[in-house]
Specification:
- The structure is a homotetramer of 230-residue chains.
- The first copy, chain A, is α+β, with helices and mostly antiparallel strands and 230 residues long.
- The first copy, chain A, has 7 helices and 7 strands.
- Helix content of chain A is 40%, strand content 14%.
- Chain A is globular, with a radius of gyration of 17 Å.
- The mean pLDDT of chain A is 96.
- Chain A binds chain B through residues 113-116, 119, 182, 185-186, 189, 192-194, 196-197, 199-201, 204, 207-208, 210-211, 214, 218, 225-229, and chain B through 23-24, 26, 43-46, 70-71, 74, 96, 98-99, 101-108, 130-131, 133, 136-137, 140, 167-169, 195, 198-199.
Chain lengths: 230, 230, 230, 230
């Protein structure tokens, strides 16, 4: 079932790996069919070198297995919370990519320092609050989803399509699994640039608000003019 | 038309990508035929993996489309201002390469710290002033060109063939699209070396003026003796 | 003899090299047959590009040559001490991988700063004390093994499968040569992340104990639920 | 003439390039036939992608062209001074490799911080004094050789087979062009490790003298025991 979505989710997972954002099995990508309310996600702990479409797992939004011979990613409950919290997200990615994880471990949000950031993220990339010991023990993966949703209670997930989970690493999302992965690749690059910038000039403040707006809106929304007309 | 220049501009664009200076579509290279006053530039938002000569766009110095089925790079107005301001430049490149962008985001010019820098840039690689909100909203890409030209009002663009745009990234130029790209590759390497140098020794001042002159003029100008005699 | 173990030890050595953790011949991996009490290890100074199964050396736990035309790695005495001190370890790896060596040279243990660390190491990755001049001159490689064993006198080598040797570099171990190498690859990645984290935020303390436990025990031990059921 | 030496010098030059130590034409390697007192060196400014044995240049120790259709490297006078000053050196290499150049630009010698350094360099890798303006203008490349020789007036070039030239970059040497290049590759790796070490712990002092001796002499000299017996 859902063979086209499976092909896209497989390709999104493999792209994370080929771009060097994944070491061993530390990451995953998923996609949702919003009509059928079914999610396709990577199986847990299967090496990327061997990953094929038939390994992918189909679950419903309650996490019930619908199709597949494998256990789904241990992070599946996090993905499901996010699909419920962000109705326009149709793809989600997670990784332990180097620089995004460094920011998460340093317990700092990534400030918008330049136009590369502004082309994709309309403001700082936020950091979740730490989970409480109770949350960790009660239902770690669900609570990881909840704390991301809480972080976005006053943010627009379409304008800021990614987050850093405290002491952990990044999650990103988008209109498809493929776009979620693109946002992950960009988040890693932006995290690396911001890291190097603050090393060179710790007092380098955020970019001007007008420049942030200009770059974000020349690529996104009704008045965008970047790229080819459709 | 201009098939030879197109081939060169295509190759210059692809070289930026193959050398790892471009992520996604973040950059572009152009070339000008000074006799015909026609500029060939990369189309906006076309993936580098698919870029072919027939995608390139020909515009005149007013930005009027002369040939091509695609919209030109959104940075085309910046290129056009620079071709008018720097009459000897016949190629221009732009990227968000990692270390050059780090310096631009850190809001610092790159001081000449060693002979690698001096072989290509006869002095510090300058940083533009920030654009005003009015400039950003009035004509962002044209004003980006204007602020670069303003930066070079007292500098020689042949002796310093590159610049960092504040909170944005590098532009370089040269006698051809190919040389503009070579200067971009070198600027990135020099930016990386200078970054690492100041991390290790923040008080490392600029190199001696005599050494800067020696290295620049052994490669450039009438008394140069580097390379093979023509 | 022991052809299957040889094949595994060869593959483990080559993986270290292919993953970029080895420059020239700076590293080695070994495996032990616990029933026969025989160790298979890389020969000393043989280039990785040329390494084949027939170059591998078989020694007993006293270091006596049992099979092979080559001298064993000069670090063989260290491996033998560790096989005696850690009865559950059936594979050992050593390298001068960049970031793990940086921590060893900086004379600092690697604190657990995030879930990537916690997935493999249940606590800080320790640093040995420096060897005394007497130890260095008396039997350098044996004493290197002894000081690692001493470091683990109050630590569980299964929960912390790696160590940094003071002013030198990392050793790792596991249930097989292959797992020792996996732990080496992970140690390098964790060392790199921790390095970048402390650069960005020197005051970034260790992760919460509950999060450390959660991630370690979801992958290890009786209640683990990561990966596929066997 | 000297076809075997030419083949070795070509291979040494190409290895520098393939290992990523050379950008464009920023570096060179040479070898000497001590009986004939003839030096083979890379031509100036010829791209590495196109370099072939027939491009190499043969000069005598006075710099007189003996064979070749190309101008020799502009750094040839530096090589010749070093061949005269270091009678046991039969190969020399120069590069602008990233981390070695960073140390040269930061105007700091590289202290021995760990066993990787000690395996190849028996003490700190020194930094030359700056050239005076007079020296730069009088005979820049010859004086670069002289200031290296001066730096080694109280050092053993066999025990420390490399140097950092102030505000410039590294030179290395060895018993052959091939060994000079190996020392260059190691110097770059050691420079990178030392850079990262001092970033993490600026107070990390040099390694213990006994450990430095142990590692250097287990690989070099009469009592060495690393590698295979000849």
């Amino acid at each position: 079932m859902l063979e086209q979505l499976k092909a896209e989710v497989l390709e999104a997972n493999l792209k994370l790996y080929r771009k060097g954002l994944i070491v061993y099995t530390w990451g995953n990508a998923s996609g949702i069919d919003r009509d059928k309310e079914l999610v396709i996600i990577k199986p847990s702990g299967v090496p990327y070198e061997e990953l094929k479409a038939e390994h992918l797992v189909v679950v419903d939004l309650d996490g019930k297995l619908v199709e597949g011979d494998y256990s789904p990613s241990s992070d599946t409950p996090t993905h499901l919370v996010l699909y419920k919290a962000f109705p326009k997200a149709c793809g989600i990615a997670h990784s332990h990519s180097l620089y995004a994880t460094i920011w998460a471990q340093a317990k700092r949000a990534i400030p918008p320092l330049g136009t590369t950031h502004a082309d994709y993220f309309h403001g700082e990339i936020p950091l979740t609050r730490p989970l409480t010991p109770e949350e960790i023990n009660r239902g770690y993966e669900v609570e990881t989803g909840n704390v991301i949703a809480e972080t976005f209670s006053r943010l627009d997930p379409e304008a800021i399509p990614g987050v850093l989970v405290y002491s952990h690493g990044p999650f990103t999302w988008g209109k498809s699994a493929s776009q979620a992965v693109e946002n992950m690749i960009v988040l890693e690059e932006v995290a690396r640039m911001a890291w190097g910038t603050l090393m060179l000039n710790p007092d380098s403040g955020p970019m001007a608000a007008e420049l942030l707006d200009k770059h974000f809106f020349r690529k996104h929304g009704a008045d965008s003019y970047y790229g080819q007309k459709k």
